[in-house]
Here is the input.
Amino acid sequence: MKTFFHVSDIGDLKAALEEAKQVKATPYAWKHLGVNKTIMLVFFNSSLRTRLSSQKAALNLGMDPIVLNIGQDSWKLETEMGVVMDGDKSEHLREAIPVMASYCDIIGVRSFAGLKDREYDYNETVLRQFIEYSGKPVISLESATVHPCQAFADLITIEEYRKTRRPKVVLTWAPHPRALPQAVPNSFAEWMNAADVDLVITHPHGYELDPKFTGGAVVEYDQMKALEGADFVYAKNWSCPGVTDPSQYGAILSKDMGWTVDARHMAVTNNAFFMHCLPVRRNMIVSDEVIDSPESLVIPEAANRVVSAQVVMKRMLEDLAK
Ligand code: AN0
Ligand code: CP
Here is the structure.
């Protein structure tokens, strides 16, 4: 595996889920794979889960992780080509990437969408430079448009908790005070479409996700109707994806607190499990009552981030050993 961005990078999903089960049961069984191997985890943005679960996954595989927080521990990096660097950025990615690559065997990158220029973000301009200039396997730790480690962990969690062969999974938009990227819902939709589940997406008008990720998924604008009979409720805020009107890209179109997932919403489901990638704003995205209920999977979901990261790193290490 050279890159981990899209569900297609993991190949057969059933095989990946089976491998995840084995990794979870015997996390130290592949410790030999990572001996004398280094993973560089580069963060342009804040993180709790991704930072820690990636390090833990690397350690489980016997690898040495190095974490770099860009702009805090390092120089501020310029990411655009052709600019006169007379501002606050001391170094360009064009040099920084090959330098970082010379110190490691695998690179993970967190680089959120800027939410200003749809084309720049949706072309994954920063991540592409890491692939092009590093020559190393690259993992998206949430880049501009995708968060595959999260979506894989979400799928592992659904596989563990599902009560029916083909559960109904509802991805619901929920309000948030700040404009957030679309990476989490994009990847969630992409992975659910590839999995053995019925996906329904619900959000206010204007929040339509890019069809590149949602494919033919059903969009139901009536949130209560969408939630009827759901087995899993996956809440997330995202800003306007700007699919029909790129000038609206990154805008907050609604702060309607009627969309906050609460007991009234969960009551119409099939006693659904509640999921969220975290970090979550309580009583904005979800009520205390729902996130504190026995149906809330937010903690096991976060714990599975080690498993998803470890399967990905394990496969990359196996390829490097060939
Ligand atoms: C980020 C987002 O919505 O993409 C990270 C989620 C994993 N969330 C926030 O910035 C709050
Ligand atoms: N879910 C997730 O990726 O969390 P962090 O932003 O804390 O890494």
Remarks:
- The chain has a mean pLDDT of 97.
- The chain is about 35% helix and 15% strand.
- The chain has two domains: 3-146+305-320, 150-301.
